[in-house]
Each structure stands twice: as C-alpha cells, then as structure tokens.
Hints:
Layout: E1 9-14, H1 17-27, E2 32-36, E3 39-44, E4 47-53, E5 70-74, H2 77-90, E6 94-101, E7 109-115, E8 121-127
Parallel strand pairs: 1-4, 5-8
Antiparallel strand pairs: 2-3, 3-4, 6-7, 7-8
InterPro entries: Glyas_Bleomycin-R_OHBP_Dase, Glyas_Fos-R_dOase_dom, VOC_core
Protein name: Glyoxalase
Pfam families: Glyoxalase
Amino acid sequence: MRNSRDAFHIAVPARDLDAAALFYNKMLGCPVARRYADRVTFDFFGDQLVCHYSPDDPVVESPTLYPRHFGVTFREREDFDALLRLVNLRKVPVFQEVRSRFGGTAEEHSTVVLVDPTGNLLEFKHYTDPRMMY
C-alpha cells in the first residue's frame, strides 16, 4: 500500500504551458520536476501534478467546483494559513474566497478555491478535527 515515499499523480489540461509554469511554480511555489514541449510536471505539495498542453481544450465560461477539482487537505492549520498568506502576497487568482463550512459539526473545515490559467479549480482546506480529512 501507499506510504509517505509514494506520490499521488494527477494530470490536468493546460492551454498555455508558460502560464501554467508561472502559476504553479512562481505563484504557488511548486518546484518544476520536468518540462517537455507537451507537458510540465510539478512537485505539487509532495505529489505529482502534470499539466498537459491542451490548446484545444474547451474554455469553460462559468466553471463550477463540482464535480471536477483537486487540491490539498492540510493536516496542520499553520500550513493552510501559510498558503493563504502566499495567495494574498502573490495575488494568486481566487475562484472562491476563504470560508468555513459545516460550522459546529465534526466536518467543520476552512476552504479556499483557486483557479489556474486554464480554468482548473484547486481547493485547499483544513479540517478542525483531523479525523475528518478522509
């Protein structure tokens, strides 16, 4: 089974690889692992994110969070707060401002949703009760 040395892998479309590299590397601080003419691979908070060049991918005029998004659920609140500071400092495009959901329940969590240059939505969150991460 998976352990901490393994990396989850996700691939998403990118209409412009330079814009994707700027967003993920320069704005979010994700190191570039590899870059080719048709894709760029990042260390996305310890997992592998591949942005595949997809210039003909349809533009979603009004994206919605469900059913398609990805991101990170932080175990520590400090890590979530550090991301929020980075987002504010670097003026990362925000799709949905930080908010709290399910207040007063075991599922209570803080969430913020970002949008990359292709329109992929990224949700970052932190649960008050770490047992609710999964």
